């Protein structure tokens, strides 16, 4: 009789444990962490298609101008003198005391609304007109060689020579890219100098 009672009690105990286990769903379910599910979610999202960038070519930078510009204000007279200067591409070698290479510069000068001037200044050496008369020879681009009437400086400077018809000379400069000029040099004869005269900006 005692053996039957023990068996009944044991069976009842086991039945109760099984019911408790079935009634708690959390006891048999393991929660999934967010970290574990993130890769799967990321993998399921398609990346947007990459669109090709438009091919935009940057505009080439212009070559630096061979001209330099400056202004000189006269406050007393209320005028402004404008200058444009260009240095020759080549230099010549003169005898002592001017050895070491001499280049020449073109100067354009305009004082207010008045007179226009164009002249050449030699870095080292002396410009002279000689017995043939005062002139220089010029060639613009592939044009013909032309004689231009010129004058020595009236200020006593022997390194400068002035073009008589400065306005006409400036107009030709505005439409040219290259210039070769032949100038008389003291004890060196007529010497040639080359210029890049493109990109000139000068009032007409």
TrEMBL record:
Annotated segments matching region Disordered: 40-75
Compositional bias annotation for Low complexity: 40-49
Protein name as annotated: Lipoprotein
Protein's organism: Paraburkholderia diazotrophica
């Amino acid at each position: 009789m005692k053996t039957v009672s023990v068996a009944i009690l044991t069976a009842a105990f086991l039945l109760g444990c099984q019911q408790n286990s079935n009634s708690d769903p959390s006891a048999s379910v393991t929660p999934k962490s967010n970290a574990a599910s993130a890769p799967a979610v990321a993998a399921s999202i398609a990346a947007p298609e990459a669109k090709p960038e438009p091919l935009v070519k940057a505009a080439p930078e212009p070559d630096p101008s061979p001209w330099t510009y400056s202004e000189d204000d006269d406050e007393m007279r209320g005028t402004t003198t404008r200058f444009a200067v260009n240095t020759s591409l080549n230099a010549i070698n003169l005898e002592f005391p001017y050895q070491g290479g001499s280049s020449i510069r073109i100067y354009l000068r305009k004082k207010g609304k008045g007179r226009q001037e164009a002249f050449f200044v030699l870095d080292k050496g002396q410009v002279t007109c000689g017995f043939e008369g005062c002139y220089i020879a010029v060639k613009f681009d592939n044009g013909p060689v032309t004689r231009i009437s010129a004058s020595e400086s009236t200020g006593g400077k022997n390194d400068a020579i002035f073009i008589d018809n400065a306005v006409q000379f400036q107009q030709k400069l505005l439409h040219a890219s290259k210039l070769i000029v032949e100038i008389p040099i003291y004890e060196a004869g007529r010497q040639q100098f080359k210029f890049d005269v493109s990109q000139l900006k000068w009032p007409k």
